[in-house]
Amino acid sequence: MAGQQSPPAFLLSALAHLEESSPADRPHVTLTFAQSLDAKIAGKNGKQLILSGKDSMLMTHWMRTMHNGIMVGVGTAVNDDPQLNTRHLPARLDGLPHRLPRPIILDPRLRLSPSCKLVKNFSSNVGLQPWIICTAPAESEERRDWQERHEALVAAGALLVQVDSTSNLLPLPSILRRLKTLGIQSLMIEGGARLIDSCFHASPFIDALIVTVAPTLVGPAGLNYGSLIPSGASILLSRNLGARTYCLLQIPHLKHHSTQVVGTDAVIVFKKSETVDV
Ligand SMILES: NC(=O)c1ccc[n+]([C@@H]2O[C@H](COP(=O)([O-])OP(=O)(O)OC[C@H]3O[C@@H](n4cnc5c(N)ncnc54)[C@H](O)[C@@H]3O)[C@@H](O)[C@H]2O)c1
Ligand SMILES: Nc1nc(=O)c(N)c(NC[C@H](O)[C@H](O)[C@H](O)COP(=O)(O)O)[nH]1
């Protein structure tokens, strides 16, 4: 795949719908992440792990250039200090830069540092302006500190987009609507764990789910997603006369599209089923 000038064919096929108009009230949404065989996306205490092999990491950067927005939660933004750019792609033969996706961070309480790489890249002209989605705290004490952080981030160059929310988990449906009005036609959501959970719970918005599975094991201390699934096992146990029945979060509208070997990894694509109206 190295040196090639366009995204791999399987990715173009998996994301062919990006060429069509996005839904009226939201961008096209691709949820994507890399995991170990034991479904961990990071190490102990969220330590960043490079799980993807070099070919699938390159594939992820092709995916980035195919979208015009890329979203992460503030947990990832603070922990990994990511750049969310396309730096692994080979230079284009025509000398033009690859399209960069707009970095979008869900950061209700403004934990992001004004000196993070996303802000620095923008101020040194090598990245797009990061958009930070936030919400003002109700308490006046908290609000003063929040206002100071707000001003520092704006002064450093970020664009702050305020939404109404009383929760630390910002409402994805209205954020997607807002992003659409701001011109985002296609959004790649990269994680981390809490944001992946929220996406699965708002799963009708997921048009494509692309999971890279790397042949590694992280072990039980690693970070996994799935924490929002209700553990109703004990209730079901008593009702089922001892049969061990577990609650599953069904995601019926996602159907397997393709699985591709990319270098050392398997990349599994699920797509929204045409038959389910969402
Ligand atoms: N392997 C991968 O592909 C991959 C991808 C991204 C991140 N990661 C890893 O994930 C870890 C970070 O994950 P995390 O769970 O701590 O943080 P996260 O990136 O999921 O951010 C969660 C935070 O975002 C904010 N937020 C606002 N609205 C939200 C919403 N609707 N849903 C969810 N969060 C919302 C909240 O403050 C929340 O605490 C890091 O260790 C990072 O290395 C791995
Ligand atoms: N595809 C993929 N494979 C991995 O092994 C891994 N750890 C991530 N993790 C995604 C997470 O969002 C990281 O924070 C960014 O990948 C860092 O972003 P940059 O590389 O700095 O642009 N993504």
From TrEMBL:
GO terms for molecular function: 5-amino-6-(5-phosphoribosylamino)uracil reductase activity. It catalyses: 2,5-diamino-6-(1-D-ribitylamino)pyrimidin-4(3H)-one 5'-phosphate + NADP(+) = 2,5-diamino-6-(1-D-ribosylamino)pyrimidin-4(3H)-one 5'-phosphate + NADPH + H(+); 2,5-diamino-6-(1-D-ribitylamino)pyrimidin-4(3H)-one 5'-phosphate + NAD(+) = 2,5-diamino-6-(1-D-ribosylamino)pyrimidin-4(3H)-one 5'-phosphate + NADH + H(+). SUPFAM superfamilies: Dihydrofolate reductase-like. Keywords: NADP, Oxidoreductase, Riboflavin biosynthesis. Catalyzes an early step in riboflavin biosynthesis, the NADPH-dependent reduction of the ribose side chain of 2,5-diamino-6-ribosylamino-4(3H)-pyrimidinone 5'-phosphate, yielding 2,5-diamino-6-ribitylamino-4(3H)-pyrimidinone 5'-phosphate. Belongs to the HTP reductase family. This is 2,5-diamino-6-ribosylamino-4(3H)-pyrimidinone 5'-phosphate reductase.
